[in-house]
Q: What sequence folds into this?
């Protein structure tokens, strides 16, 4: 695939889906799958899914939006495709938009959740942030804290940050930033809820590092360690929302951009204060 947005419907009815319960407090489930063709492993996932209503969320669209945002800012991350496809769930063909990503592990690498790795390697009473600093991952973590503020990521728990290890080479590295679906306006199911959403509200989030406040977590970044990011500009709205007409509403597109832009401006003010 040479584009991140595939609007021509693909036949992915051969995929087998597993259920991952949604822990975000909304009804439904997350379905995930993978394929291995020609030595290439690709992972697929659906937005929040209900057996009766079908797809009731837009988390997969969020993955593409955040992917585009991080590309603009110059932050390394896992790339996603948004794909229009027929899939088979419980014997019924569903017309959906799903997202797909390549396996980010290199040959010889295995992965372990950061919380599990810390539990094995930590010093007594060592915080997750101090642990990552000791391991030399502070720049990665500081970029992550900025991203999670900009998109109000609700789901940066200890398994959504991964460590990649190569036992033969005895190397460890952080996996690229991934899994940003539960962010932005992920809990808004209709335009009425979208219009009522306060994009600057400091909602509690499931953060493994720091507090439950993405705003307060920005204050964990020393002034001389703040990430050097490419600037976000108002014209970038077109690039971030390109091709999404008919996939999510114009109301939702406008509100997502309002959220990203206002939070970016607040972050710039924070850095200059």
A:
């Amino acid at each position: 695939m040479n584009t991140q947005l595939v609007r021509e419907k693909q036949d992915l009815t051969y995929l087998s889906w597993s259920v991952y319960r949604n822990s975000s407090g909304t009804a439904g489930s997350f379905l995930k799958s993978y394929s291995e063709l020609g030595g290439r492993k690709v992972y697929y996932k659906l937005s929040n899914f209900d057996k009766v209503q079908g797809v009731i969320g837009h988390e997969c669209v969020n993955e593409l939006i955040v992917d585009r945002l991080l590309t603009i800012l110059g932050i390394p991350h896992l790339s996603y495709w948004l794909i229009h496809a027929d899939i088979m769930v419980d014997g019924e063909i569903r017309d959906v938009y799903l997202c797909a990503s390549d396996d980010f592990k290199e040959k010889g690498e295995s992965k372990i959740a950061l919380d599990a790795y810390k539990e094995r390697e930590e010093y007594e009473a060592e915080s997750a942030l101090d642990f990552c600093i000791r391991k030399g991952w502070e720049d990665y973590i500081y970029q992550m804290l900025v991203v999670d503020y900009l998109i109000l990521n609700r789901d940066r728990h200890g398994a959504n940050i991964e460590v990649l290890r190569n036992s033969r080479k005895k190397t460890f590295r952080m996996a690229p930033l991934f899994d940003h679906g539960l962010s932005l306006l992920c809990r808004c199911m209709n335009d009425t809820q979208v219009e009522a959403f306060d994009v600057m509200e400091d909602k509690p989030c499931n953060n493994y590092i720091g507090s439950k406040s993405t705003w307060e977590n920005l204050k964990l970044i020393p002034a001389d360690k703040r990430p050097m990011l490419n600037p976000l500009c108002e014209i970038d709205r077109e690039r971030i929302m390109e091709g999404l007409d008919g996939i999510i509403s114009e109301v939702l597109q406008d509100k997502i951009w309002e959220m990203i832009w206002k939070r970016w401006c607040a972050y710039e003010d924070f850095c200059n204060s």
Remarks:
- DSSP finds eight helices and eleven strands in the chain.
- The first strand starts at residue 5 and ends at 11.
- The radius of gyration is 19 Å.
- The chain has two domains: 5-102, 109-272.
